[in-house]
């Protein structure tokens, strides 16, 4: 997708390299459920078939005039379980929930305290498939193979469809921070107790899982040639935990991961939900240009930009509430503010804060995309 | 003795708190008095949260300790009749949303501050809130949401409270990561927060800071 003689890939990478171009690149985090809403497809259909999920995303892309890079999302909730991306029980529309609901995660205390050391011994992947998946689903080995096969098949089509539209996928390869993974598997309250009352096993598990991520994800990201991968964390910020926890269980492992990917020339996209205001200064310790901060509107993106100006690229952060119940003019005003203040010297990608909400107003979505295209950065 | 209990709460020493309570029970202290001491300790934790010294994780830890003490005292307290309540709070995550982490944290904190809370659970139909309000006669009605699809249900529930003549009798509060002041206006709630302790403070202030 080229306009002004600049391709989407060039525009995207200019932002990642903290440079300015004709306008800011636009990358909404449009996952299957909001895409289905925009395309008039039921949530139950996209949750049951990832080919339909991809169709919904592509239809929304085409109907709304396209954007600069497509957020990979051709999956079903069961496939996320099967591929060790979501280590939680899921409630699925048409199966566990009414057909017009979005699928949702059901957090329960599944991981047991003695499992931390088993993870250390086996590594997270073996532990997940041999000891954990059976606790959160009834997927057999055949089911897992079939679901992962469907993921790969559809992903190949996703790549081809991106090529047809002259836009790159936003990333390839993704993982959750070990801290976040364990919090989900154990449940937040129990995990918090472990951090305070039996920290050593948790620390050992995080250390092992960090090594596992580096070994498993770098080859995938390298092979894709895209130069980006996604790293998600929603629970480690000062909204939840004091600096003592952050500095012991999160930051050293984060630096290790980012440095390992960066040594291969791969940029880490941090998907950071909740308020990170107090943690933002730590990110100055990471190499300049080695990461993107994808914020969900709970962190003050304007203050974060001041702290990391010329050091990091930002992605976000049109609030979900604004996209669902706001007016198009409010969306336009907020997007312009982002472009003027966060994008003024480059290093900014316009997008939604976290995912586009499942009940996004179509005119608000259109306002976000069009404002991005029409506003000179 | 109350100061000692507070000291144990603010370092989240669960075992020592339970030992302290057990020993005092055996020494013949009134369970209601012990519960009151724990509430004072929780107030101290809340104050440290509000000054930024403590974080949400530490509120959760202390509230979990409080929950264990409450369970320990429950049988003896029920023999003495109900403790004085600071107010009644009806809580729910409404239709379209099955997430309950934030709601559960608020429920625990409210109970630790002396509020009587009825928790309706998740994916609650708005009409059910009205039925329960008639039974429970709450002073506050709280809705928690993690996803935006719960907003129309919140709006519907507030409209139903209005229709039923209940709107002026209760304060409606909403919370959760996706809520904003604009959502508060959209659903016609009285209060919105993404901070559980702010929710507790609101209830305390509105009930006269008892």
Radius of gyration of chain B over alpha carbons? 18 Å
- CATH fold-level topology of chain A: TIM Barrel
The helix content of chain A is 40-55%
End-to-end Cα distance of chain B, whole Å, is: 22 Å
Number of helix segments of chain B?
9
Question: What strand order characterises the main sheet of chain B?
Answer: 2-1-3-4-5
**What is the CA-based Rg of chain A, rounded?**
20 Å
Number of beta-strand segments of chain B: 5
Tell me the name of the CATH homologous superfamily of the largest domain in chain B: Cobalamin-binding domain
Give the N-to-C terminal Cα separation of chain A: 18 Å
Give the biggest beta sheet of chain B.
Answer: 5 strands, parallel
What can you tell me about this protein's structure?
- The complex is a heterodimer of chains A (377) and B (210).
- Chain A is an alpha/beta fold.
- Chain A has one domain (8-374): TIM Barrel.
- Helices cover 51% and strands 10% of the residues of chain A.
- Chain A is built from 16 helices and 8 strands.
- Chain A has helices spanning 8-16, 32-39, 43-48, 50-63, 77-82, 115-122, 124-136, 141-164, 178-186, 188-197, 199-224, 243-262, 301-308, 320-325, 328-341, 362-374, and strands spanning 89-91, 104-106, 174-176, 228-233, 267-272, 291-295, 313-318, 348-352.
- In chain A, the strands form 2 sheets. Chain A has a 6-stranded parallel sheet with strand order 3-4-5-6-7-8. A two-stranded antiparallel ribbon of chain A has the order 1-2.
- Chain A is globular.
- The two termini of chain A are 18 Å apart.
- Chain B is of the alpha/beta class and 210 residues long.
- Chain B folds into 2 domains: 2-80, Methionine synthase domain (Methyltransferase, Methionine Synthase (B12-binding Domains), Chain A, domain 1); 88-206, 3-Layer(aba) Sandwich (Rossmann fold).
- Chain B is 57% helix and 10% strand.
- Chain B has helices spanning 2-9, 14-26, 31-50, 56-80, 101-112, 126-136, 151-163, 181-187, 196-206; strands at 88-92, 116-119, 140-144, 171-175, 191-193.
- In chain B, strands 2-1-3-4-5 form a 5-stranded parallel sheet, sandwiched between helices.
- In chain B, α2 (14-26) packs parallel to α4 (56-80), α4 (56-80) crosses α5 (101-112) and α5 (101-112) crosses α9 (196-206).
- The two termini of chain B are 22 Å apart.
- The model of chain B has no long low-confidence stretch (mean pLDDT 91).
- At the A-B interface, β2, α10 and α14 of A face α4 and α8 of B.
């Amino acid at each position: 997708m080229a306009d002004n003689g600049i391709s989407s890939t060039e525009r995207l990478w200019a932002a990642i390299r903290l440079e300015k171009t004709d306008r800011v690149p636009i990358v909404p985090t449009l996952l299957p459920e909001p895409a289905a809403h925009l395309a008039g497809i039921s949530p139950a259909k996209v949750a049951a078939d990832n080919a339909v999920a991809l169709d919904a995303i592509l239809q929304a892309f085409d109907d709304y005039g396209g954007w600069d890079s497509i957020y990979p999302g051709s999956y079903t909730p069961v496939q996320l379980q099967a591929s060790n991306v979501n280590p939680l029980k899921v409630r699925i529309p048409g199966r566990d929930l009414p057909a017009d609901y979005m699928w949702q995660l059901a957090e329960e205390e599944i991981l047991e305290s003695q499992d931390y050391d088993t993870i250390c011994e086996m590594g997270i992947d073996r532990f997940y498939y041999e000891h954990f998946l059976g606790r959160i689903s009834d997927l057999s080995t055949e089911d897992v193979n079939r679901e992962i096969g469907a993921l790969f098949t559809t992903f190949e089509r996703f790549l081809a469809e991106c090529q047809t539209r002259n836009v790159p996928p936003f990333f390839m390869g993704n993982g959750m921070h070990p801290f976040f993974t364990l919090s989900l598997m154990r449940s937040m309250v129990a995990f918090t107790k472990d951090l305070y009352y039996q920290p050593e096993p948790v620390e050992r598990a995080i250390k092992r899982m960090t090594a596992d991520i580096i070994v498993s994800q770098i080859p995938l990201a390298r092979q894709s040639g895209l130069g980006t991968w996604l790293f998600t964390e929603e629970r480690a910020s000062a909204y939840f935990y004091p600096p003592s926890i952050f500095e012991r269980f999160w930051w050293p492992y984060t630096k290790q991961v980012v440095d390992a990917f960066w040594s291969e020339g791969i940029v880490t996209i941090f998907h950071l939900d909740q308020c990170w205001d107090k943690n933002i200064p730590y990110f100055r310790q990471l190499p300049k240009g080695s990461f993107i901060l994808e914020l969900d509107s709970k962190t003050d993106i304007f203050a974060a930009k001041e702290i990391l100006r010329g050091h990091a690229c930002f992605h976000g952060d049109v609030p979900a509430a604004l996209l669902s119940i706001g007016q198009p003019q409010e969306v336009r005003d907020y997007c312009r503010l982002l472009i003027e203040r966060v994008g003024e010297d480059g290093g900014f990608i316009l997008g939604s804060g976290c995912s586009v909400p499942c009940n996004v107003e179509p005119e608000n979505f259109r306002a976000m995309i069009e404002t991005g295209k029409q506003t000179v950065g | 003795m109350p100061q000692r209990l507070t000291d144990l709460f603010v370092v989240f020493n669960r075992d020592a708190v339970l030992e302290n309570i057990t020993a005092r029970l055996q020494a013949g202290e009134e369970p209601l008095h012990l519960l009151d001491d724990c509430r004072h300790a929780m107030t101290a934790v809340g104050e440290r949260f509000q000054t930024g010294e403590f974080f949400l994780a530490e509120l959760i830890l202390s509230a979990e300790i409080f929950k264990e003490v409450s369970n320990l005292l429950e049988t003896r307290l029920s023999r003495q009749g109900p403790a004085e309540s600071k107010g009644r709070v009806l809580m729910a995550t409404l239709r379209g949303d099955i997430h309950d982490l934030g709601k559960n944290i608020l429920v625990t904190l409210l109970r630790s501050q002396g509020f009587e809370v009825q928790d309706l659970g998740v994916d609650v139909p708005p009409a059910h809130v009205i039925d329960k309000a008639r039974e429970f006669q709450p002073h506050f009605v709280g809705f928690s949401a993690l996803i935006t699809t719960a907003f129309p249900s919140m709006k519907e529930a507030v409209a139903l409270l209005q229709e039923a003549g209940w709107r002026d009798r209760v304060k409606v509060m909403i919370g959760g990561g996706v809520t904003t002041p604009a959502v508060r206006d959209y659903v016609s709630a009285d209060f919105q927060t993404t901070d559980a302790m702010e929710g507790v403070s609101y209830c305390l202030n509105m009930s006269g800071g008892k």
